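=== Given protein ===
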Amino acid sequence: MGSIVLNIIKVIGNRLPAVHLVAVSVCAVIIGFTLMLVPSEEVSATRGDPSLTRSSQQETLKLDLNLEKDAAEPALRNTAPAAALLKNAAKERPSAETDSSDADDSAPALATSTDTTAQAVAETAPKADNWVNYKVTSGDNLSTLFKRAGLSARDVFTVSAATKDSEALSRLYPGESLSFLIQNGELKKLKHLINPLKQVLLEQDGDSYSIDIVEQEPEIEHRFAQGTIQNSLFLDGEKAGLPSNTIMEMAALFGWDVDFALDIRKGDSFRVIYEEKRFEGKVIGVGDIVAAEFTNQGDTFTSLRYTDSKGNTSYYTPKGESMRKAFLRTPVDFARISSNFNLSRRHPVLNRIRAHKGVDYAASTGTPIKAAGDGKIIYRGVKGGYGNVIILQHGNNISTLYAHMSRFKKGLSVGSRIKQGQLIGYVGMSGMVTGPHLHYEFQVNGVHKNPVTVKLPHADPVPKTERASFQATSQALMAQLETYSKTQVASAE
């Protein structure tokens, strides 16, 4: 500041008379002295530190002395070192001597320092992987999903080559999801979420991909439901809170003893203990039935699950007899009988007496038809008024016939071995019929028997070596059924 004043005086001195020069000099001295006494903003910010003030005064004195020698130099050259010294002094000030006014004044600088540090940490912290997720919809395949993710046909080929010897990505179903991690146009990782418990992870490994199949076990909890038949097993089962899969399993368990198309009556009842699968606190599905009872027209049938010492699981009565019979009572689920076994029935198309050697189950076209028992296909094709027919040969000179199919299950031919409950075809209207239905016949030694009333042989009972273990399981499950039932009734009241 002193150099500025001196320069001004020199300029004025060259242009004004002596008297005026004296007046100007006096004013300049007064202004300069005043400016020296008024602290700058930076100096005010450090006023609370006595040691710093003394140091600053010493530096200012030195600067004033030097200003007289260097008055002809630009002001910027002299003020810059002073500002630098003040800033250095502020940096060296001990934090312990800072009072409340210092804290308030230094807050903006502290915030700036914190922001800078946070920015530096953010720049050095690893960035999270940026996954892109796609839901599999009807009609999707690997190519369409890769194209949607911006990948090429070459990427599809590379991934397919890496997974050709495994089940990974072999089939995609609607509802599943594929997640892509793409960096610089390259597929680094791929996740195929099959269900909440199973996923396939592919990770780039050179020119190919490594495969890791991750499977987790769900938590299993027991659930209980009971109800009374007012309409049908399916409707009343849903009303009682049973999942549809559990209703179907219950129908299959008791299907050897109860014809749900013919025998079921209003007032029949059921109670069931079944498994519920949970994962991370959410219900993800249902498991098997643990124990169940169905009362039909006053007769109670009980089915208990038992796993033997070899790990084989099956269902038995409380006495250890197998629930599974050698034959299903009905080859179609939830159908109604439109025509019973009758050797003197009048044919609806021919309008004359003609023996009806089987049972007709009315159902919509396309309803699945199951094999009544283990056996071998001895006929598959068109058979006169029967239309599309399959005939199975079973043990003990028993055979079954399935007629009027709309189509056969693909892959089946004469000689094919069939398991009980296996899909063999679909309900239709082929042959001489008035509506879609399954015509089902049951023969023993070549003689037609009524499929509804014929006594069906049982499968093997609990082995003698497992009897003690089974009895313990049986008693525990029967006690659980009673306890659950009483608890639910009490809570309802």
